[in-house]
Amino acid sequence: MKSLADRIKAARKHADLTQKDLAAKAGVSQPVISQLEKGENLQSVHLVKIASACNVRAEWLATGQGEMTDGSNSVAEVIGTYSSGAAAKVMEMLSKHGKSLRPDQQERLERAVADTLNDKPDATPPDNVIVADFSRRPLVGDEIRIAHYDVQGAMGNGKLVHDFPEMFRDVTVSQQHLRELGVTYKDPVHLKLITGIGQSMAPTIQDKDPLIVDASVREFTGDGIYAFIWQGHFYIKSLQVVDAEHFKMISKAEKLYPPVEIRIDETYIQARVLLVWNAQKL
Questions:
Q1: What residues does the HTH cro/C1-type domain cover (predicted)?
Q2: pTM score, two decimals?
Q3: How many separate domains does the chain show?
Q4: pLDDT tens figures, 56-65
């Protein structure tokens, strides 16, 4: 199978899983699996977990090389396949410590495995996998880096889900400056920079304003502005609780975009918006 999307679909069917079942086992939302199987926005971030959930070989899933299964797909055998280089070390770390890692740490390890597979001599690169150069200058003082991703959240009628975006670059900022702006967070590693598109949240958020979000917030933590997926589309809107089963999705421009009640169990919060990083022309 030449396409990574075809291999993911074949792996799921091999394991006799629905898209919802595979999403639960891999720790992602069902729309993510749907997009992967359509060949949209493919990257290799979740390949290790998908391979494990479907009991297929990680190398086959990532590159199409070799057989789909080897009987057990154990971590030890995967390490044996890649007995040299970073892949063996990373897979060993996943085996020993994966369950206790934070999601961002697991993601970095999985990306390392996939990148190492892609660097294997004579291997065919996985489809549409984005390789970034992470070289950078040292941080100074209390500076932190915030990853700027090619994610556009619609402040209107929603955009198609973009689960595996390209990272533009890191933005280096002072934590003291963020504190002065009133931004509070537990761990700076979860801060990300995305873009709001549309006018429905104006004047709070203007079209194409960069937004600093906390990607560790995956549940409702109180009234505020969230980045979330609903009915397969990505939104940046205010959320309020209506009752035990419903949120109210609210735009600032309520005349154009009246409030809508949406089901809590169909709403997948991806982050909470902490700061609008905009500039006003003087």
A1: 8-61
A2: 0.51
A3: 2
A4: 888 788 778 8
